[in-house]
Amino acid sequence: MRKTLVHFFTIADYEEEELWLRKQHRNGWKLVKMTPPCFFTFEECEPEDVIYRLDYKNSEQTEEYMQMLNDFGWEYCGKCFGWLYFRKPASAAETDEDGELFSDNASRVEMVSHIVKTKLMPLCVIFFCCVIPNFVRVLFGDYYGGAELFFGILFGALFVIYVYMIVYCGLKLRRIRKKYEQ
Amino acid sequence: MDDRIRRIYVPMTESGFYILFFLQTPQHGYGISQQVKKLTGGAVNISAGTMYGALSKMEADGLISFCREEEKRKLYQVTALGREILETEIRRIERLYRNSKGENVDA
């Protein structure tokens, strides 16, 4: 049997997402597929403690990378918006590092910086160059027809969503980076 | 050795040191991690993502170079620059060790 769950995780929630997927597998549901932006398809399976890990690669992952992850015992189980999903049974991880994609803080911090540079920054650019100008234009426009009202509400909603996303993700990514910089 | 490389790699991380050390003979990522685990008695473990990132960076900086491919796995080997950095690091660690025992080190 299959089921599809809707769960939205931001670009700063990957550690929660890993735990959520692990919990699903422990309850007998393994991840089959991710459909952007927030649909997870699961298949019924034997309940098992399986570690899920997400890596972020904004460029195409190389064959060498996939081979290396495979050598280290990671099973690839899908990708979504540059996020790659991997899993490994907890019993196969002899040490803590075996259950992680990154074994030192330098590489954990590097991944956060990579997310900020290629995900959060573009979000800010769209916000300042597209959402704000349009919102202001609609707000102070001369005409007040049905179309203006529609776009007013649309850009107003986008404005709120973007502010929330940028502030929330920015602060959270900073907190994650701090945690690993110590 | 230029300043940028020196700034990044001297001193280097423990993972970086072991990777460079084991690439004195051609080896692939997983092979290195197994050798490190064995030689350190399990004290140092390098995970997949960290290994891949370190190899990519070291290759881009010219410390190691692609050697050959074996069953889709890329084998790398240390370059002259990489060897120079490794030797610099070994001298630094030797000094640390001798100083920690209360010995003086001549310039």
Short descriptors:
heterodimer, A: 182 residues, alpha+beta, 2 domains, three-stranded antiparallel β-sheet, 4 helices, 51% helix, 21% strand, elongated, B: 107 residues, Arc Repressor Mutant, subunit A, two-stranded antiparallel sheet, 5 helices, 2 strands
In short:
The complex is a heterodimer of chains A (182) and B (107). Chain A has 182 residues and is of the alpha+beta class.
Would you mind describing this structure in some detail?
The complex is a heterodimer of chains A (182) and B (107). With 182 residues, chain A is α+β, with helices and mostly antiparallel strands. Chain A has helices spanning 14-26, 63-71, 105-139, 146-181; strands spanning 2-6, 29-35, 39-44, 50-56, 75-80, 83-89. Chain A has two domains: 2-99, no CATH class; 105-181. Chain A has four helices and six strands; from the N terminus they run E-H-E-E-E-H-E-E-H-H. The termini of chain A are far apart. The mean pLDDT of chain A is 89. Chain B has helices spanning 3-9, 14-22, 29-39, 48-60, 80-100, and strands at 64-70, 73-78. Chain B is an alpha+beta fold and 107 residues long. The two termini of chain B are 20 Å apart. In chain B, strand 1 (64-70) and strand 2 form a beta hairpin. Chain B is globular. The A-B interface holds A 55, 63-65, 67-69, 71-72, 74, 95-98, 100-104, 106-107, 110-111 and B 13-15, 28-30, 33, 42, 45-54, 72-74.
